[in-house]
Each structure stands twice: as C-alpha cells, then as structure tokens.
Amino acid sequence: MRQYSADLTPPWKKPQPVPEVPADPGLVVEEPATGFCGAVIRCEAGTVTLEDRFGKHRVFPLEPRGFLLEGRVVTLVRPASGPARPARTASGSVAVPGARARVARAGRLYVEGRHDAELVEKVWGDDLRIEGVVVEYLEGVDDLPSIVADFAPGPDARLGVLVDHLVPGSKEWRIAESVTSEHALVVGHPYIDIWEAVKPASVGIPAWPRVPRGQDWKTGVCAALGWRVAHTGEAWQRILGSVRTYKDLEPELLGRVEELIDFVTAPA
C-alpha cells in the first residue's frame, strides 16, 4: 500500500532554505523586524551584539532566518572558533591577519589637508601599511611645485597627490598640470571639501547643505545643520566616526584614491 506524506503544504509555499553565516566581528547585517543595521561586535551563546554607525549597541537572539545580509535573508551562527577578524579591510580588500607592515617605500601619497589624511588612513590604512605607502598632507596646492621638486619623483619613487575640488581651468588645475609627469600623478575629486565625499546617509543627514559663495564652507555647513559653528573639528570627528568602510564614501573619491595607490605601488 502506497504511503503518503502528512505534509500537504505545496512546495512553493514551504520556507526555502537560507545560508548560515558566521557572525564574525565586522560583519554588517540588518535585523528586519526593527530595521536596526550594524556591525557585529560580539557573538555569545544565543545572542549577537550589533553596533550602528552612531555607536549604538543592540543585542538580538540568534534565530533562524533572523537577519538580512546585503538584502538577503540569512541565519547567523556563532563562529566555529574564537573571535574572528573581518574577512575584508575597510577598503574592501581581502584582510591579511597578522601581516606586518612593509618597510616604507620611497614613493608617497600626498593629500590636501589633515582631514583628508585621516579619512584615507581610516579606510585604506591596512592596505597602505601592507604596501609600505606613507601618506602626508599639503597645507595647500600652492606648495605643490616645491614639494614635487624637492621629492624628485622617479621610477622607484613615485608620487601621488589627491587634490580637493579640482576643476578644469582653475588655478589649482594649472598647478596640477604643471607638476604631473611619468612618475608624478595628481588627481582630484569634485567635492569642495573632503567632508562632502562622505555619503550624507552615513552621517545621518538628507544632503550636504549648499553654502553661499564667499562664506566659509565648513562654518556654513555646521550652521545649516545646527551643529556648533565654532567647533568644526568636533564636527569632523562626528563625520569621521560615521565612516566604517568604503561603502560610506562617494564613488568619485574611491576611484581617485585607488588610482593613486595603484600608481604609487606599480612595479618600476
């Protein structure tokens, strides 16, 4: 006599299996019931702790089909061994746990300002240490010709420079053109200041304010957003703290920095 299954649920209505993903530190997921999105900072028996871009922590149970990873439903599971390192660096490169910093190359990266240097370090720092690339900052593009002349770039000592708001035909553009050579590359992003290269959504604002010409841009931004105008340094720490990975930055900046790193590290 033929036996029939007691489960009469049609196949298309049955829950589909979902992948199990280890809750490694640094993994960014979303808890769909609350909409809370953050990086894994701790995974203990039966629970996982997430931290969002504002530093807020939430603890959730490790339930089947309980999280979204890049929009896909997954089941988070406790890592098989002890605390694991993120599989990728903040720049999206494959992480190399335990790798030692390479002895500094003769080549250098220059960026326009301390804030630029801090942002590059936060996102590309791991990559740059492995490649042995040192980042320094300019006080202004006007100093670029003398810096390039003193550096004397060559096949084994390439120089890459990132400039803010590099507009064709401008004074800054002409200076950049005058020092660009086979061993010196100057590129620019379209933003007035490096602040603007951070995605507004990552900072928790709808958009970067438009500041009237003639007004200090950073001061105008702070005023428009209701931040303390006299503390632009404090505002920058707030912005920098919202950046976790390359996904928090605009593509126009990402492409330029990656181009410079490739240029400086290319074989002679």
Automatic annotation (TrEMBL):
Superkingdom of origin organism: Bacteria
InterPro entries: DUF3097_C, DUF3097_N
Residue stretches making up the DUF3097 domain: 20-79, 108-265
Pfam families recorded: DUF3097_C (PF11296), DUF3097_N (PF22845)
Protein name, as recorded: DUF3097 domain-containing protein
